[in-house]
Amino acid sequence: MRNFSATTTYFLQEGRENLEDCLKVAFQASKQHRIGKIVIFTSRGEGVRIALQSFCSLPEYSDIQLVAVTFPAGKVFTDSANNSFKAEITSPDLKLFEEHHVPIVRAHLPFDPIKPGIRQQGFLAQDLTAVGDVLSMFCGSMSLCIQSIVLACDAGYVHPGEHVIALTSDTAILAKASFTHNMLSEMIVREILCKPAILTIGRNEIATQPKGKVLVAKKAKTKKTIKKLNKP
Fold it and tell me: Per-residue pLDDT tens for 114-170?
């Protein structure tokens, strides 16, 4: 067999409204490809909670192991009014994850730079930030899928060379896992299971309905200065 066909689901726009559809695509693919682990990048725990209640509770998905990856403790975000806030997993969800033996990985994201000790001195450790920028050409969540896999592997919940599915609120991939330190030489993305077609958040595009088989998008007139939080 020299080739095969696989379906990629495209969402019209980026965002958390795609979460349940993204989970459905991921779980269906896990059974089709006999994948035993699904890694979910989450900021508030919503994606993992829905996965446990709506999918892992079904007999056909009961043997799938979930791994949650989230931002490091103390991560601060800024809203549209320039107010700082933390996006944290609630205590009831933490209890739910513990009851279902879902590990939570909290760590500095490999593609994020490190601030120096002296202000106005730029950033340190930026070698991998360019990788994140390249992945953002696919969509804003693609880099989070990649980083969630290597962090889960670094933490010991995914084995190097193991095939897993990773997802966020609107993107899911099937990939061969690796540690962070050899990600660029050993990690392989096998399939893009679903992704947004129009980058309404990451590239500030405006989504419109497809005309025939052609998607139509244009840049918004005003550039967004505050990035929206787009993690389940």
Answer: 776 666 555 555 568 888 999 999 999 999 999 999 999 999 999 999 999 999 999
Domain with 140, as residue range(s), is 9-219
Mean pLDDT of all residues in the chain?
Answer: 87
CATH, residue 25:
3.40.1380.20
Asked whether 144 and 151 are in contact (CB, 8 A), the reply is: no
Which residue type, as a one-letter code, is found at position 25?
V
Q: How does residue 208 score in pLDDT terms, banded at 50, 70 and 90?
A: confident
Domain count, the chain: 1
Neighbouring C-alpha atoms within 13 Å toward the C-beta of 95: 3
Asked if 94 and 73 touch (Cβ cutoff 8 Å), the reply is no
Please, are residues 41 and 231 in contact by the beta-carbon 8 Å criterion? Answer: yes
Q: Which residues of 205-224 are buried (b: 16+ CB within 10 A; e: fewer)?
A: bebeeeeeeeeebeeeeeee
> Cα(first)–Cα(last) distance of the chain, in Å?
38
SS3 167: strand
Query: What is the CB-side half-sphere exposure of residue 144 using CA atoms within 13 A?
Result: 24
